[in-house]
Amino acid sequence: MEGDTSKASNFGRTMLRFGKYFSKYWYGLALTLVLIVVATWAQVTAPEYIGQAVDCYLFPQNPADCWYATITLDMSDADKLAGLGGLVLLLIGLFIAGSVFVGLSFYTMTLTGQRVLLKIREDLFKKLQSQTIGYYTENESGNLMSRVTSDTDTIQQAFSYALVNVFSGILLMVWVAIKMFGINVPYALVSLIVTPVMLVATLYFSAQARKAFRKSRQQMGNVNANLQESISGMREVQAFNREDETIESFRQTNAANRDANVRAAAFTSALNPTLEALGFVALAIVVLVGGYAVLTNQPNLLAVDNISIGPITISLASTALTLGIVFVFLQYVQRINQPIQQIAVLWTNIQSAIAGGERIFGLLDAPVDIVDKPNAETMPQIEGRVEFDDVAVSYKVGERVLKGVSFTTQPGQMVAIVGPTGAGKTTIINLIPRFYDVDTGSVKIDGRDVRDVTMESLRAQIGIVLQDTYLFSDTVMNNIRFGRLGATDEEVIAAAKLVSADTFIERLPEGYQTVLGERGSGLSQGQRQLIAIARVALMNPRILILDEATSSVDTRTERLIQKAFERIMEGRTTFVIAHRLSTIRNADMVMMLRDGQIIERGTHVSLLAEKGAYYDLYMSQFRYEEKLEADPNAVSNPLLAST
User: Fold this and answer.
1) Taking a C-beta distance cutoff of 8 angstroms, is the pair 608, 618 a contact?
2) pLDDT tens digit string along 200-216?
3) Do residues 553 and 529 make contact, with C-beta atoms less than 8 angstroms apart?
4) Which one of 266, 391, 523, 532 is CB 3.0 to 4.6 Å from 469, fit for a cystine?
């Protein structure tokens, strides 16, 4: 999904994608554009008045057209001082106006950019919510998080500062060049002779920087993924004494990120002094050529009336060089060189933002494997008849997880699914709420293919309790209410009482309003599981799916939960991935899976009588559990029992 980060991507296509977002806020862009144009006009106009200050008042020419009148050599000093003072005030006004309009342009662009980023983040979050469970098994959560955080932050910096400066810089360069050619074409050509070299240097270094920044963005995602994984698995890291190995792994990932950033910084650092040196060369050319013309009293040194190229004649009528014009060109050349230098530095930020945008749009464009059909219907109230018809499923091409699985359950039945790890037990229960789609065959509920109804209406009637439950950093009340957001407090409390969770909840510091830590930290595994079961009980689902929901609780808590399950399972179809004998004995049907196929099915008693694979499983695992239930003092360890 990352692709080759060293390969240049389509800059224009990414900008067009941004353009679609900005089109909704065109008025903000239009206002920003107007402010930039006015601010640029102030910057372009100011040098003209500086030139007039030289030619009109400091070293007057005869005659000279100035900002408010035609100046002559016999003008009094008082008039010159008054005119110069007025010109200075005009220049101050232009500088102030230019600064104000520049500040306003930054504000309007930042405001518009923030609105765009708000929409982009919303679209990213919606996309992540719509992706399938399989998508998250293939993509690290830390890497996905960096799309919403790190990459959007990079775009924010470009939109709020760099983009305005780059656009205003380009506009200023074009405007100044037009002004220069309007005054004296040959002198303008001489003054701008270094500019193409600066542009070539900018293009080369920025292209290299872009590649480095794209690599940096990828490496930052790897750092986030490594960090998130290390923190989530801290118990396992410490339990197996793998702190040093984990630190070394993070050091390598972090070093790769450092190298990518250093490479990007190297190109950025090399470009700025290169352009600065070329800028000084350009100023030197302006001073040498213009100064020579003025000092040798050759104002028409670069005057050329026209150039003939075959039948075409190009007029190059130019203003005679004066000291004031030399000052104007010095100001203009500085104004051209400065944006080039700024653009060179800021362009790397924009390149980084474009790289971040490519990653963001790559996520937004990632296909969603499971979607509602255009004509999908709403699932009516489920009765509970579930049918698997010759179902085959593959997570990877050529690797079948389920092979021709067929069975039918009647409403209200309890089905226990047993088998070794990797047999396909979890895949079966994931197909019922359509977390995955079948390759061949079909999964039907009450005669309706789950692919023909909307996922929302289907999943709203299916309750799931997993072995590894997840609680949010919120109150106990809201964690239970997550099963049905419109439930009242009384209904939440009733669901907690149903599964006997109210006893420990009421002992918490704030009772039902106690805010839990990340993943329910501060509660025991059994307490977290009880809250998760209360959440499903509040849903009042028509189909229950239990991934051995009682496997992580003590015997006393398990008995309480089993009693609660007996009440909420009544009249509902229930699928249980079973690891305990107490669950299997109560099942209406037990399915024994091996290598993605149902090799045996029946009740607990009938399967024992067959003395097949289920019988072997019972003898190796469940027989000792049964003895322990009958006599708590009995030996429960098979290894000890055999001695």
Assistant:
1) yes
2) 887 777 777 767 777 77
3) yes
4) 532
Terminal-residue alpha carbon distance, the chain: 55
502 Cβ contact list (under 8 Å, min separation 6): 493, 496
Query: 11-364 sits in which CATH class?
Result: mainly alpha
What SS3 class is residue 270?
Answer: helix
Which pair of structure tokens corresponds to residue 351? 């390149």
Biggest CA pair distance of the chain: 127
Is 469-540 the same fold as 390-461+545-607? yes
Stated as kind and residue range, the H or E segment containing 328 is helix 323-364
- What is the C-alpha to C-alpha distance for residues 260 and 268, in angstroms, rounded to an integer? 13
Domain spanning 390-461+545-607: CATH superfamily: P-loop containing nucleotide triphosphate hydrolases (3.40.50.300)
Entry field: residues in the chain: 643
Domain ranges of the chain: 11-364, 390-461+545-607, 469-540
Residue given tokens 């839990």 in the structure block: 516
Q: Note the pTM of the prediction, 2 decimals.
A: 0.65
- Sign of CA pseudo-dihedral 578, 584, 589, 595: positive
* Residues paired with residue 574 on neighbouring β-strands, in sequence order: 414, 544
- Backbone φ, ψ for residue 303 (5° rounding): -80, 125
The CA distance from 537 to 526, in Å, is 16
Contacts 24+ apart (CB under 8 A), 421-425: 423/593, 423/594, 423/595, 423/596, 424/393, 424/593, 424/595, 424/596, 424/597, 425/577, 425/593
CATH class of 469-540: alpha beta
